[in-house]
Design a protein that fits this description.
It contains no helices and 11 strands. The chain has 125 residues and is mainly β. Strand 4 and strand 5 form a beta hairpin. It is globular.
C-alpha cells in the first residue's frame, strides 16, 4: 500500500534552518505531483511548495519564496524541503502529500491530494 513518511522536523531558533524529508513507497514516484503542506491548530492546511516529480517544475507559496526550496531524488523516491531563515510564523505541522492524477501543473488545494504522510512538527522560537 502507499506510504509517505516524513522526517526532519524539530525545534529551531528564528533564522535557523531545517531539512524535511519525505519518502514514498508502494506506488509510482515519477511524473506525479508531490507537495508540502503545513497546518496550525484552528487553521486550514495550506500549501507550502509543490514539485512535479521527474520533470522538476516547482511552486512556492509567497510566504516562503526565497527561503524554502523543494527538491526530489527520484532514485530514493523522496522529496525534501530545505527551510532557511525560519520565522516564528513557520511554526506548524508539515505534511507531505501526493496527487495521483494531475498532469502539467500541480494543484494547490489539499482536497486534490489523495495520499498523506503523518506529519512532522516544526517549531520556530
Amino acid at each position: 500500500h502507499v506510504q509517505l513518511v516524513e522526517s526532519g522536523g524539530g525545534s529551531v531558533q528564528a533564522g535557523g534552518s531545517l531539512l524535511l524529508s519525505c519518502t514514498v513507497s508502494g506506488t509510482t514516484f515519477n511524473i506525479r505531483c508531490m507537495a508540502w503542506f503545513r497546518q496550525v491548530p484552528g487553521k486550514e492546511r495550506e500549501v507550502v511548495a509543490t514539485v512535479y516529480t521527474g520533470i522538476g517544475n516547482t511552486y512556492y507559496a509567497d510566504s516562503v519564496k526565497g527561503r524554502f526550496a523543494i527538491s526530489q531524488d527520484t532514485d530514493k523516491k523522496a522529496i525534501y524541503l530545505q527551510m532557511n531563515s525560519l520565522e516564528p510564523d513557520d511554526t506548524a505541522k508539515y505534511y507531505c502529500a501526493r496527487n495521483s492524477y494531475a498532469t502539467g501543473s500541480c494543484p494547490l488545494g489539499q482536497s486534490s491530494y489523495d495520499y498523506w504522510g503523518q506529519g512532522t512538527q516544526v517549531t520556530v522560537s
